[in-house]
Amino acid sequence: MKPNVLILHASGTNRDHEAAWAVELAGGAPEIVHINQLRVGAKKLADFQMMIVAGGFSYGDALGAGRRLALDLTLDLAEDLAAFVAAGKPVLGICNGFQALVKAGLLPDPQLETGANTVTLTHNRRELFECRWVTLEPNPNSPCVFTRNLLEPIYCPVAHGEGRFATAANLPPAQVALRYGGSDYPANPNGSVDDIAGICNPSGTILGLMPHPEDHIVPWQHPRWTRGEAGRLGLPLFEAGVQYAANI
Length: 248
Known about the structure:
By secondary structure, this protein is an alpha/beta fold. It has one domain: Rossmann fold, CATH 3.40.50. The chain has six helices and eleven strands. The strands form two sheets. The chain has a nine-stranded mixed beta sheet with strand order 2-1-3-4-11-10-9-6-7, sandwiched between helices. α1 links the parallel β1 and β2. α1 crosses α6 and α3 packs across α5. It is globular and about 50 Å long.
């Protein structure tokens, strides 16, 4: 059976339909669920085998990128989300979703004490909104369930103003799931330390990344498709997550 995949929506989220299409192509059964549906019990997180916190500008980033959504996750959904993570169900946060997972304490490690988080996503080094295509190199030594079987890099766009990954402590190398395909601008579009584009939790079931693999899941989405260029799709990342969820 196809695993049920929850695509979390909040006011301002705008990448949920793209994420749902990626899940559908990957063999999952996506459902876009507004966070208020979870809050009032109309939908149950426990009924899903995987969750994606989609990109966009949740709540208009009024309190900071992803911060208001992180409060929803840590206050209203704390127990359900803790049970979801403890069950080993995969969680994927993309762009604003990554920001929310970090601010909610789910990355880099949900076992850390509250307030002990040593990583953040802050303003791009050039202090500009970056919208461009980048190459993502998977770390073959990472336990991340979304990336550990990727056979080639992913080519996909970024679209953010606060995507620079920074850390006050050394992150275990295995938790770096994805790196930008170069250290200089524009290959590393935001100036992230160690070219980090995505990280996972120690067990590899939670992944957060700033770029948008859901925007390159079919060949004709490649920006130079009409010139004969193709490949390096983001779809395998979703296929890996869906396949893992199907076996839980």
